[in-house]
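Carboxylic ester hydrolase
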Amino acid sequence: MADAIATTSSGRVRGIGDGRVRRFLGIPYAASPTGERRFALPVSHPAWDGIRDATAPGATAPHRVKDFPGLDVSPLIGTGWVRGDDYLAANVFTPDDAGTGRPVMVWIHGGGFVIGSKDAAIQDCATFARDGIVCFAINYRLGVDGFLPIPGIPTNLGLRDMIAALHWVQANAAAFGGDPNNVTVFGESAGAMAIADLIASPLAKGLFRRAIIQSGHAAMTRSIPVMQRLVRKLAKLLRITPDKAGFMSVDQEATLDAVDKVSQPTARIDLRDADGHEPVFGISRFVPVHGDDVLPLQPLEALKRGAGAEIDVLIGTNAEEMNLYLVPTGVRDKVGGLFATFILSRSQPRARKALKAYGLGQAGKKAGQALLDATNDLVFRWPARRFAEEHQGRTHMYEFDWRSPAFGGELGACHGMELPFTFDSLACATGPQGLAGEAPPQALADRVHRIWVDFARDGSLPWDAFDRESRKVFSLLDGKALREEPMAAQGFLP
């Protein structure tokens, strides 16, 4: 190991090089969002004297990670809150040489906008640096601090943090050997949802050239009035006024206690819109809002009007996304028809008809499987296709369809399963409680990771673009693009 020095816009940093990859960890891209700045707009970090150590990941946004039945999810989402002030920070991974003008990738982590960090093991960007990419991974504010439209504070602070980070990347990419004119943002789940939103945001225009949206789309935003129901609910739980002064008066531990309570399935909070749709399907209470300067329009509407047409997009889903939520928990095998209808009715006004469209009532079809099949499409797969239909720029669609042998082969191609393949980090997800089970195929990781690298380098992909007529979707397992017919879900979503 040898010291590696880089000069950023705030000062010099010391990382570590191993002959192949240089790592610079925990570099602040914005001032600490603590104290009086807790709910403030992100601003540049003050300059420092001397050389700042960048050999440890540092702090994360406040959050709590809970155990997941039968799975070790820590490689996906990290081990929880690491306390510290400078958590609006980036990790940077570069080839360990003096090269310049390299393609840049920026990773935005998932976690339902309430958990996760840039440091989860499965998303180690060193594999991209190994293959000639300058790769950044960023933190952003979560939960109440990042995605609650509290009266008196700026909306969408988590998205604003990401935009600040992308400005920082523009200013500092060259210092790490990267080309600021060749930036690809990529993310999974909430990180992918955020990227879909940034494509539609006028405030992010010009900050990246390409985007990879993994299990994400533009449908998971709420209006500010709907989200302010959540503001009032949390304020009541915390016994504070539903405004900036009230939320500034409670510490992070109390805030996280309230988030835990309001996130329970039994919490009484109605976040449906005027048409009876809850676009997040209960997965998270916290999502970006539309109707401000970050997202003046609902993002899908913005795409229809040409927003983000200059950006090349690679978007895709996993074939069995909702298996992650309904198989390990036993929900799929326990629910009957009435309860399945009740569950879906909290998000979908025509729940019974939707379930029937996915086989409820048919001989041999269990209610839990109908719920699983319906929500796979309603929550993830069809909204991603809708993004591909409305994005007026170049758009390519993939499906990750390798099935994990975990849970007796029932976990399948669930949410998050593509991550160890895209990052070529299978070791993190392998084992008795690993997401990918025992002996996942390295050859598939080689293929998928190479597709991501090539797209970031120059936009190249080995299949044709998606449009409403051809509907070409590339199977990452088979290596072929085939026409995909519209789904039953299309009749139940905007």
